[in-house]
């Protein structure tokens, strides 16, 4: 929609009439966003069910993180270290909030992170959200596996047991993409397995781990810390992954490492 003359630019998502699964996700998205409000969750402005099913969201003019990473890989965008850490922290804030409210997103991926022109990030697409386990339970059994290939927690894929740390795994894949510039679409699960092995020994210079598109403008210490955090998030066993509150705290510490850093630093 246009902007100016009292009009506001918005994004509209339309449900296909023949899609039963889409109808379920439509209703879930309306219900979830009616209960959640956070600066880094995309805002649902309204919806319609009378003249077709529509969801109306705030417009995010920066597109998706998926596009930003793709454009960076092509050399069409300089996506620097501080921008990447800003995105990581803000998505972690949104996900931490969701987990505190006992919601599991189930489809964390670069395409579901939307950006403003200043690289403020917001999480979107809540059609697969599940209410998390209550009490002392750490997981619930999901009868239908949901998510996106390459980002799905393998333990959830194998057992059907879904928990907040399934989101942590998916977020860890995003951290790997932000750090290395490599994409799940190109490497699939190999991105995780290869980097998990490589990050066991972080003694090489940081350019062996960091996206060349950042042109070496990043702190040696920060790169090693982010590699270590990403490795922990995508740990094979769920019990070895941190929770999102811990991830958020560590990301804020990494963000505050000066970009002009001593290249001789070790982590």
Instruction: Let me know the average pLDDT.
Output: 87
Strand content: 5-15%
Return the string of H and E elements: EHEEHHEEEEEHEHHHHH
Structure annotation, total helices? 9
* Count of separate structural domains: 2
Major sheet: size, sense and barrel closure? 3 strands, antiparallel
Number of strands: 9
Question: If you had to describe this structure to a student in words, what would you say it looks like?
Answer:
The chain has helices spanning 20-35, 65-73, 81-100, 154-159, 164-180, 184-187, 190-198, 220-233, 244-255; strands at residues 10-14, 44-48, 54-58, 103-104, 113-115, 121-123, 130-131, 140-141, 161-162. The longest helix is centred in the middle third of the chain and has 20 residues, at 81-100. The protein folds into two domains: 10-58, Phosphorylase Kinase, domain 1 (2-Layer Sandwich); 65-255, Transferase(Phosphotransferase), domain 1 (Orthogonal Bundle), CATH 1.10.510. The strands form four sheets. The chain has a three-stranded antiparallel beta sheet with strand order 1-3-2, covered by helices on one side. Strands 4-7 form a two-stranded antiparallel sheet. It is an alpha+beta fold.
């Amino acid at each position: 929609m246009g902007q100016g003359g009292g009009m506001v630019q918005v994004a509209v998502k339309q449900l296909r009439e023949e899609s039963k699964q889409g109808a379920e996700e439509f209703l879930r998205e309306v219900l979830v966003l009616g209960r959640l409000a956070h600066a880094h969750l995309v805002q649902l402005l309204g919806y319609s069910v009378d003249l077709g099913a529509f969801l109306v969201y705030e417009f995010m003019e920066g597109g998706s993180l998926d596009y930003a990473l793709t454009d960076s890989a092509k050399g069409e965008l300089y996506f620097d270290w501080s921008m990447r850490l800003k995105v990581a922290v803000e998505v972690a804030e949104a996900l931490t909030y969701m987990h505190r409210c006992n919601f599991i997103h189930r489809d964390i991926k670069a395409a579901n992170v939307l950006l403003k022109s200043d690289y403020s990030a917001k999480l979107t697409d809540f059609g697969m959200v599940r209410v998390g386990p209550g009490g002392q339970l750490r997981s619930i059994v999901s009868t239908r596996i949901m998510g996106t290939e390459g980002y799905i927690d393998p333990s959830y894929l194998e057992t059907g047991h879904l928990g907040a740390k399934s989101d942590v795994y998916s977020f860890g894949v995003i951290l790997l993409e932000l750090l290395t510039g490599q994409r799940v679409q190109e490497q699939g699960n190999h991105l995780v397995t290869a980097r998990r092995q490589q990050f066991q020994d972080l003694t090489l210079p940081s350019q062996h781990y960091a996206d060349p598109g950042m042109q070496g403008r990043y702190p040696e210490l920060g790169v090693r810390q982010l590699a270590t955090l990403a490795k922990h998030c995508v740990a094979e066993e769920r019990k070895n992954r941190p929770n999102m509150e811990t991830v958020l705290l560590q990301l804020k510490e990494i963000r505050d490492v000066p970009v002009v850093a001593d290249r001789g630093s070790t982590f």
